[in-house]
Structures are given as structure tokens and as C-alpha cells.
Design goal:
Blueprint: H1 5-10, E1 15-16, H2 20-38, H3 44-54, E2 57-58, E3 63-64, E4 68-70, E5 76-78, E6 83-84, E7 88-91, E8 96-98, E9 103-104, E10 109-111, E11 113-114, H4 119-123, E12 126-129, E13 132-134, E14 139-140, E15 145-146, E16 151-152, E17 157-158, E18 163-164, E19 173-175, E20 180-181
Parallel strand pairs: 2-5, 3-6, 4-7, 5-8, 6-9, 7-10, 8-13, 9-14, 10-15, 13-16, 14-17, 15-18, 17-19
Antiparallel strand pairs: 1-12, 11-12, 19-20
Helix pairs in contact: 2-3
Pfam families: Hexapep (PF00132), Mac (PF12464)
InterPro entries: Hexapep, Hexapep_transf_CS, Hexapeptide_acetyltransf, Mac_dom, Trimer_LpxA-like_sf
Function: Acetyltransferase implicated in the O-acetylation of Nod factors.
Length: 185
């Protein structure tokens, strides 16, 4: 059986984002973002209904301040009490899990999209995704970048402007580019 480009994307295999089905999904996501990001002061129930219309799951009490940008939206699961500040970008070609009570600062980018290292494959437009998991009670400072395939453990802290290129263990604070654990004094 031949997989569709969307099935390949969801399976983490090389796929072509120019596929008509994926282009239609991205178009729907853009229309949703237009609606979501156009609102400023609306009742919490309305904002939640908008989020549930596009995201895989949204826990009770989660707040995502617009503007909020996604590739598709349907690969994003947001836990209870999550707070995502202004101008968050989530490229969700693979699953993104955000644990309960996580706090994400303004301008954070969560990027599951990746590209082949082989220049011939890359020139042919192939790409793939690697899932990202953010644990419970994680705090990610403003402007941080979370790169494809990263897992951030519960209660971890990511300093503002950090570039997280590898997993962050539970309870650890990382800072810098690339992000490294702070040494304890």
C-alpha cells in the first residue's frame, strides 16, 4: 500500500509539503489563524471553542494569546492550565505535546519540521518531522527555540532566548545557544 504524503508526514517519513492535501490543510490552518488572531477581547469559552476547532486537544483553563501561528494545528495537544504568550509559532508537522501547567513566553518557536541532510533530497523538496514533548509545569522563557525531536522533562526551565537542540531532563534549567544545563554552585 502506498502512503499519501500526509500519512508519510504523520509517520515521520520523508514527504512533500507541496502535496494538494497538505496544501489544503495548511490553507484551512491559515483561515483558522485569521479568525483566532483577529480576536482580542472575547469570552474564555469562545476562545476555547476556537482552539478546540483546530488543535488536537486543549485542557481546561489553557490560554493561548494571539497572535498564534501553526502549520496545521491538528498535531498540537495542550494540557490543563497551560499559558502560551503572544506570538508563539508551532510548526506541527509532527506531534507536539505540551504538558499541564506549562508556561511558554512570548515569541517562542516550537519546530518539529526538519529537512534531510542530503542536499539532493533537500533540493527535491523532501522534508520530515520529529515530535516534541514538553512536560508538566515547564517554563520556557521568551524567544526560546525548541528544535525537532526534543523532549523537555517535567518541571524544567528553559532560559529566554535559548536554543534547545537536545533533550532536557526533568527539573533541569538550561540556557544559551545551544542550551546547556546551568551548573549548580
Amino acid at each position: 500500500m502506498t502512503l499519501t504524503e500526509k500519512q508519510k508526514m504523520l509517520a515521520g517519513e520523508l514527504y512533500r509539503a507541496t502535496d494538494p492535501e497538505l496544501q489544503a490543510d495548511q490553507s484551512a490552518a491559515r483561515a483558522w489563524m485569521d479568525q483566532y488572531n483577529d480576536r482580542q477581547e472575547v469570552p474564555a469559552e469562545y476562545a476555547r471553542a476556537l482552539l478546540l476547532a483546530r488543535l488536537a486537544a486543549v485542557g481546561e483553563g489553557a490560554i493561548i494569546r494571539p497572535p498564534f501561528h501553526v502549520d496545521y494545528g491538528f498535531n498540537i495537544t495542550v494540557g490543563r492550565g497551560v499559558f502560551i504568550n503572544f506570538n508563539c509559532v508551532i510548526l506541527d508537522v509532527a506531534q507536539v505535546l505540551i504538558g499541564d501547567f506549562a508556561q511558554i513566553g512570548p515569541g517562542v518557536q516550537i519546530l518539529t519540521a526538519d529537512h534531510p541532510r542530503n542536499p539532493v533530497e533537500r533540493a527535491q523538496g523532501a522534508e520530515f518531522g520529529r515530535p516534541i514533548s514538553i512536560g508538566r509545569n515547564v517554563w520556557i522563557g521568551g524567544g526560546a527555540l525548541i528544535l525537532p525531536g526534543v523532549r523537555i522533562g517535567d518541571n524544567a526551565l528553559v532560559g529566554a532566548g535559548s536554543v534547545v537542540t537536545r533533550d532536557v531532563p526533568e527539573g533541569v534549567t538550561v540556557v544559551g545557544n545551544p542550551a546547556r544545563a546551568l551548573s549548580e554552585s
